[in-house]
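Protein modeling request. Please complete all fields; requests missing the sequence field cannot be processed.
Requester role: graduate student
Desired output: 3D structure, token encoding
Chains: 1
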Amino acid sequence: MIPAAVLYDDQIPATAKLLYGEIYRLSHANGYCYASNRDFTEILRCSEATVTRLISALADQGHIRVKMIRRYGSKGDITQRRIFCGQELAKEDPPEGTEEGAEGPLKNEDTSPQKRGDGPLKNEDHTTKSNIYNKPPIVPREIFALCTAYAGEDGELLEAILGLLENRAVANKSPVKTTRAMNGILKKLDRLSGGDRGMKLALLDRATVANWLTVFPLKSDELPADKPSGPAREPGVRYI
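Delivered output (240 residues):
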């Protein structure tokens, strides 16, 4: 479940959009998710540092809100992290020193939107993200769905594919507009890579850096390094 505001926000990486979908899926009825970065690394197949960067990107764009729960209110060690999304995102926490569930404001208390945090302060910039959400998407919805189906749960591969498409649309002003054209790129990627994931990433990265419209065969010095197969063997040990 990825809303259009997140799906077509070109200010965040493609993997961040998948991460938002996982946060939404793991959120409970109270509207927040408490999964750890390690949990997300197993789902997205990326490092914890990458997950931290993606969460920050979503928070900076206002798509999620992160709250740290500490043992003694605002002090003490962190016992849980809560990531809010969806409708619960707008519900800010009550100010420190107040009790949740109070029947009403205290006498003479300022209940203006500015004081509650529901509106902008005086002389504050009223600019919103509507100009971002109203931009025409670089990657059309049907193309994004096709790429997502191709990459499966491999977030790094999806980000590499979308990186090529976004670079092609911006640098060459030649965006992919049809599923037929996208299928042609993916078939060529399969043929040149032989189905190898590392080769696919190398082909996509090279095409993006070179501002190519599609992938092309790599030179010998551009091929990804072969990974050793089997368990590591220590010198001086006889294996049977």
